[in-house]
Design goal:
- α1 packs across α2 (38-46).
- The chain folds into 3 domains: 4-73, Structural Genomics Hypothetical 15.5 Kd Protein In mrcA-pckA Intergenic Region, Chain A (Roll); 90-173, Pseudouridine synthase, CATH 3.30.2350; 179-295, Pseudouridine synthase (2-Layer Sandwich).
- The N and C termini lie far apart (62 Å).
- The model is unreliable at 1-9 (pLDDT under 50).
- The radius of gyration is 22 Å and the shape is globular.
- The chain is α+β, with helices and mostly antiparallel strands and 328 residues long.
- The longest helix is centred in the middle third of the chain and has 12 residues, at 161-172.
- It has helices at 25-32, 38-46, 120-128, 161-172, 247-254, 278-285, 316-324, and strands at residues 4-6, 11-15, 50-52, 55-57, 69-73, 90-94, 98-103, 142-143, 152-158, 177-185, 192-196, 199-202, 205-211, 220-229, 233-240, 292-300, 307-311.
């Protein structure tokens, strides 16, 4: 059980000995790679970074197979203290415990491979400066929840350990009011209801999520139709009963109503497009991002217990689509 680590690729290759048979794969790998915690190994497995004899493994609880060769590819490390960068964003509320903001589309929340800077975290470090108490001994904001790069809308960020813990618990328990606006293709039937289906990594493309029959996490999305342009397109309000990666995008695409402009889950021209006039059809088909906006967020203040609620309209590019479709 001797792991080989290639620095250039950050690839750990481990051959499982007979005595490891039956162990959970995340536990086995964390013991074999003593620089990684079990939770980190679990995260990497769920991200689709593990292969067994060349086949993708996405379940951390999968039992080890003796003599199998496991390859775990690690992401490139990110600096522990991102640089402060002056990046504009709209602040809706701020005190010593937290910041509520309206994230613009195109802004990545946290530094990661491919987006090492120019993120919301960099912007928050610049905005807060030395007034940020910090999280975990570092002067950094506490990211309670995330929005995809090209999803706009309301976010709350913690400035203290206590605020991070309390807000994270509220999000985990869904003890909050949170709603999204999604412009989708077609007209859902019924006009309001639930979309349910376990979500996991797409076995054919690890960069995508999918509704899966095995190994996914239970997911439930509530929706209601706010407006529509015949059978061509609809504006939905969506609420999350669970919080899976890309949940709204995956559920709507799976139900036959992908979000307008979604670069990942809309891979062909939808049949409903032919129901629109050519100019309008072109505007929707050329929209460069998913037309998804986190419009409302309400929660109890982590220190005072006061109920706070914030609502923002979609950004101008999405507003133009809605006006063209007579939905605004």
């Amino acid at each position: 059980m001797s792991p080989q680590n290639t620095a250039e690729t950050r690839l750990h290759t481990i051959a499982a000995p007979p005595e490891a048979q039956g162990q959970r794969i995340d536990r086995f790998l964390s013991e074999a790679i003593d620089t990684l915690s079990r939770s980190r190994v679990k995260q990497f497995i769920e991200e689709g970074r593990l292969q067994r004899d060349g086949k993708l493994v996405t379940q951390p609880a999968e039992p080890v197979r003796p003599h199998a060769v496991y390859r775990l590819a690690l992401p490139e490390p990110v600096a522990a203290l991102p640089a402060a960068q002056s990046i504009p964003f709209d602040i809706l509320y701020e005190d010593t415990d937290l910041i509520v903001l309206d994230k613009p589309a195109g802004l990545v929340v946290h530094p990661a491979p491919g987006n090492e800077d120019g993120t919301l975290v960099n912007a928050l470090l610049a905005h807060c400066g030395d007034t940020l108490p910090g999280i975990g001994g570092e002067r950094r904001p506490g990211i309670v929840h995330r929005l995809d790069k090209d999803t706009s809308g309301v976010m709350v960020v913690a400035k203290t350990e206590q605020a991070l813990a309390t807000l994270s618990a509220a999000f985990a328990a869904r003890d909050l009011d949170r709603a999204y606006l999604a412009l989708c293709w077609g007209l859902p039937a019924p006009a309001h209801g639930d979309i349910e289906g376990a979500i996991g990594r797409d076995p054919r493309d690890r960069k995508r999520m999918a509704v899966v029959t095995r190994g996914g996490k239970q997911a439930l999305t509530h929706y209601r139709t706010l407006a529509n342009t015949g059978l061509a397109a609809s504006l939905l309000e969506c609420r999350l009963a669970t919080g899976r990666t890309h949940q709204i995008r995956v559920h709507l695409a799976t139900s036959g109503h992908p979000i307008v402009g979604d670069p990942v889950y809309l891979r062909r021209i939808p049949a409903q497009a032919k129901l629109l006039p050519p100019d309008t059809r072109g505007l929707l088909l050329d929209f460069p991002r998913q037309a998804l906006h986190a419009t409302r967020l309400g929660f109890r203040h982590p220190r005072t217990g006061e109920t706070l609620s914030f609502t923002t309209p979609p950004p101008p590019d999405m507003q133009r689509l809605l006006k063209t479709l007579a939905m605004a």
